[in-house]
Structure formats: structure tokens, C-alpha cells
Amino acid sequence: MKKEQVEEAKKRVKQKKEFFEHFRTYATMSAMFFAINLFTSQGNWWFYWPIFGWGIGIVSHYFSVFGVPGVGVIDKAWEEQQLEKELRSMSAGEVENPVETPLDLNKTPIPDVREKNFGKTGTRMNWFELRE
Fold first, then answer.
1. For residue 67, what are the CA distances in angstroms to 4, 76, 109?
2. What is the pTM (predicted TM-score) of this model?
3. Do residues 109 and 116 make contact, with C-beta atoms less than 8 angstroms apart?
């Protein structure tokens, strides 16, 4: 094993340990917020606000350590992999995940509704005349 790999593994283990410590603190403080709220002001529930705000931080910390589910950690290696993938698809002349339009506007004629709406006299026709 190379020295760089060992250092990278130590760094990843440290990041995971810090996340789990952060999560443990979050869970403990969430219970404490609930208990304080329960015993001090039962009719006015506020404990979920700090839990929600801190929860956003927990989710962000999770994504930075473990990555987005189905994608992985978005770091330099991921960027390089995506860049290579894009370059391969561009050189092959194909587009990955092309956008499909329901109508091809070049082939679908757009009806001219001016004459139908206003008629030849310039007055607006009623709804029943438009349904023809």
C-alpha cells in the first residue's frame, strides 16, 4: 500500500468519526430541547425549530462525508470522472440524456386562429362557433 493511500484512508476515517460525533451531539441536544420545551412551556412548542435548523447542517455534513446516495462523494475525482465521461460522449457525437420534446415544432403546423376568433367582419365570435 502506498503512503498516499494510507493518508487518504486515515482522512476518510477521521471524517466519518467526526460525522458520527456530530450526529450523536445532534440527537442528544434534540432530546434536551424537547425536554426543556416540555417542562418549561408546554403550550408553546418551539423545540422543532432548532432541531430543524441543525438537521439541515447534519444532512449537509452527511453528504460531504458519504456523498449523495446513488452519486457518491462529489470531489475532485468525481469531477475528473464526469469530465472524461462528457468528453467521450462529445467525441462520439452523442448527447447523454437528450431532452425529448413532445412536439416537433418544425413539423407540427401552428393553426392560424385570427380569422376564427374575429371572423371576416372583425367581431369576436362566441364560444359555440369556435367549437366547430
1. 21, 13, 47
2. 0.56
3. no
**Average pLDDT score, the chain:** 80
For residues 4 and 60, what is the distance between their CA atoms, to the nearest angstrom? Answer: 27
Radius of gyration from C-alpha coordinates of the chain:
30
Instruction: Report d(CA 68, CA 15) in Å as an integer.
Output: 15
Q: Taking the CB of residue 64, how many other CB atoms lie within 10 A of it?
A: 13
What's the grid cell of residue 55?
Answer: 438537521
Give the residue from 26, 66, 72, 70 showing the smallest Cα distance to 50.
26
pLDDT greater than 60 at residue 127: no
C-alpha 111/C-alpha 106 separation (Å) is 13
